[in-house]
Design a protein that fits this description.
With about 300 residues, this protein is α/β, with parallel strands linked by helices. The protein has two domains: about 120 residues, Indigoidine synthase domain (Indigoidine synthase fold), CATH 3.40.1790.10; about 180 residues, Indigoidine synthase fold (3-Layer(aba) Sandwich), CATH 3.40.1790. It contains 13 helices and eleven strands. Strand 3 and strand 4 form a beta hairpin. Helix 10 crosses helix 13 and helix 11 packs across helix 12. The chain is globular, with a radius of gyration of 18 Å. The protein starts with 7 loop residues before the first strand and ends with a helix. Bound molecules: pseudouridine-5'-monophosphate and manganese (II) ion (MN). The site of manganese (II) ion has 4 residues, from loops.
């Protein structure tokens, strides 16, 4: 058995909640360090934790700080992740390097799932997941998030995938990997800023209890791996599909001209989309993440009762 304490610090509040079978919701830090500007990200980080508490669950923001895996951050640590000076973006392949070299990094969906599983947490709220990039059939740029969903027992609540990705191929990949893709009250997989992508989900799970039952069935049968829950952005914060498609095409061309590749593509796209929409996309991003935190908390509450 691995000695968890050798690598990981879990706050007493989170450790006690997990041990007592109480609802806990994991949160990622890449959305803070590489997904939103400072200081808006710091305000967001505080508020999303409050939303989870208001639903009766315990928030667990994940990060790697000076080589230590962290479940639950202090205010000073949150501040550090949000200022993001020298904070790396850490996916699965980067994890052993930052740990051994005692570096500091923000966790992606993939690494947040890994840390959640180590801490015994089964529900995670994020904004959008990584996926198969447009042109991925040539570049092979496929986010490690998809492999993690295949293997790690965490239910991930997201607002779908951005149109910077090839949503069709992302869903095909998830099917191949055996990952159930559920809609929360929708039959259409959401497209992050927009409520609909035009691609269907595997099942419209009408309530958080339905999601919890499906997750429990998967894990009780020993199927392992994760589930992806698509929760559409609330109508009043949704953006116009055609307008966003235009913005995203423009920003994709900018990335191409600037020669941006690999792990830098998503942060580049996010920053320029905020600029190109005059900050509107940031408002939407914040609200859809809050909405996911609420849904994830309710799923965690239901799971804790099953
Ligand atoms: N999509 C977003 N916002 C984000 C990310 C994706 O709308 O902040 C982040 C998440 O942390 C996700 C990561 O796990 O980007 C995917 O990066 P890559 O494609 O390099 O795996
Ligand atoms: Mn990539």
């Amino acid at each position: 058995m691995m000695d968890l304490k050798q690598f990981m610090d879990i706050t007493p509040e989170i450790a006690e909640a997990v041990a007592g079978g109480k609802p806990v919701v994991a949160l990622e830090s890449t959305i803070l360090s590489h997904g939103m500007p400072y200081p808006e990200n710091l305000k967001f980080a505080g508020e999303i934790e409050k939303i989870i508490r208001a639903e009766g669950a315990v928030p667990a923001t994940m990060a790697v700080i000076d080589g230590r895996l962290k479940a639950g951050l202090t205010e000073a640590e949150l501040q550090r992740m949000c200022e993001a000076r020298g904070v790396l973006k850490v996916s699965r392949r980067d994890l052993p390097i930052v740990v051994a070299e005692k570096l500091t990094g923000a966790t992606t969906v993939a690494t947040t799932m890994i840390l959640a599983r180590l801490a015994g947490i089964h529900v995670f709220a994020t904004g959008g997941i990584g996926g198969v990039h447009r042109g991925g059939e040539v570049t092979m740029d496929i986010s490690a998030d998809l492999q993690e969903l295949a293997h790690t027992e965490v239910a991930v609540v997201c607002a779908g995938a951005k149109m910077i990705l090839d949503i069709g191929r992302t869903l095909e990949y998830l099917e191949t990997m055996g990952v159930p893709v559920l809609g929360l009250g929708t039959s259409d997989f959401p497209a992050f800023y927009c409520r609909r992508s035009g691609f269907g989900v595997d099942f419209n799970a009408k309530t958080p209890l339905d999601v919890a039952k499906i997750a429990k069935a998967k894990w009780d049968m020993g199927l392992g791996g994760g589930l992806l829950i698509g929760n559409p952005v609330p109508e009043e914060y949704a953006m116009d599909f055609d307008k966003m498609s235009e913005v995203i095409d423009r920003v994709l061309r900018m990335a191409d001209e600037a020669g941006v590749k690999g792990k830098d593509i998503t942060p580049f796209m996010l920053a320029h989309i905020v600029e190109e929409t005059g900050g509107d996309s940031l408002k939407t991003n914040i609200q859809l993440a809050f909405n996911n935190a609420r849904a994830a908390s309710r799923i965690a509450v239901e799971l804790s009762k099953l």
